[in-house]
């Protein structure tokens, strides 16, 4: 038997003691206020029961969570919960609103909490995964999407169509967004990369592959000081102030 812990016209929370699952159900979520109110209520219930599993019914979820709200959700709910080391799995029923569902997925991509939720098309699938005794790793898509390419000869355009299971949609949409982000980075920084000499590009490649100054110097038959000079010039030309920024230029190599 489940226990009703919270109920409004927009959001309900119930606890299933036998399975140790805390379930939040979005009956309606179209605004930021409705979303924030639901997250606050869920955290209060979470602190009361400290469940082994959490389960979100997002089938009626229609709010596109902003980047600021994504960070807030991670800092307010996900990260503190993960720090307690109690909850093992998070299951989510997918919304038919694609952009809203993608914004939910991104919370776990950009956040600090080491949580990887499972996305499911129906409650039966989610409950079986949540209660199954296994390592708490969310399932990745079992199959590749079916891809069809159609050629629009009149407009000289190609149309790509992809067919996949509903729970796999956030996974592939997020990777498609990363592809577009990488493309934007390449376009915006091509001029900077072209300013590097052939030797600088070689050293950049070696740095990105994890070689230290001594290893680079040995392989290129130059001194460590020369390597340091090259690295400073590379950082300056590319406008990088950290190693993590430099790594992004590996897209050119």
UniProtKB/TrEMBL annotation:
Keywords for this protein: DNA-binding, Transcription, Transcription regulation
Gene3D superfamilies for this protein: Winged helix-like DNA-binding domain superfamily/Winged helix DNA-binding domain (1.10.10.10)
The name this protein goes by in its record: Helix-turn-helix transcriptional regulator
InterPro entries, alphabetized: Sig_transdc_resp-reg_C-effctor (IPR016032), Tscrpt_reg_LuxR_C (IPR000792), WH-like_DNA-bd_sf (IPR036388)
PANTHER family cross-referenced by the UniProt entry: DNA-BINDING TRANSCRIPTIONAL ACTIVATOR DEVR_DOSR (PTHR44688:SF16)
Residues of the HTH luxR-type domain: 189-253
SUPFAM superfamilies xrefs: C-terminal effector domain of the bipartite response regulators
SMART domains in the cross-refs: HTH_LUXR
């Amino acid at each position: 038997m489940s226990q009703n812990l919270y109920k409004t016209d927009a959001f309900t929370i119930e606890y299933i003691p036998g399975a140790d699952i805390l379930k939040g159900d979005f009956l309606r979520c179209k605004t930021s206020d409705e979303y924030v109110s639901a997250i606050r209520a869920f955290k209060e219930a979470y602190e009361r029961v400290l469940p082994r599993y959490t389960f979100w019914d997002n089938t009626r979820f229609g709010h596109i969570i902003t980047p600021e709200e994504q960070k807030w959700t991670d800092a307010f709910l996900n990260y503190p919960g993960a720090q307690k080391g109690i909850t093992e799995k998070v299951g989510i029923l997918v919304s038919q609103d694609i952009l809203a569902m993608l914004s939910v997925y991104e919370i776990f991509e950009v956040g600090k909490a080491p949580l990887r939720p499972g996305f499911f098309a129906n409650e039966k699938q989610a409950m079986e995964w949540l209660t199954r005794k296994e390592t708490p790793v969310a399932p990745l898509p079992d199959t590749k999407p079916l891809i069809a390419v159609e050629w629009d000869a009149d407009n000289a355009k190609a149309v790509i169509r992809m067919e996949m299971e509903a729970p796999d949609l956030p996974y592939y949409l997020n990777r498609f967004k990363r592809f577009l982000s990488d493309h934007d980075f390449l376009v915006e920084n091509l001029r900077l990369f072209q300013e590097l000499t052939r030797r600088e590009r070689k050293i950049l490649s070696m740095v990105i592959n994890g070689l230290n100054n001594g290893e680079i110097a040995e392989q290129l038959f130059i001194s460590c000081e020369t390597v340091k000079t090259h690295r400073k010039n590379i950082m300056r030309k590319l406008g990088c102030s950290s190693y993590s920024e430099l790594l992004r230029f590996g897209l050119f190599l």
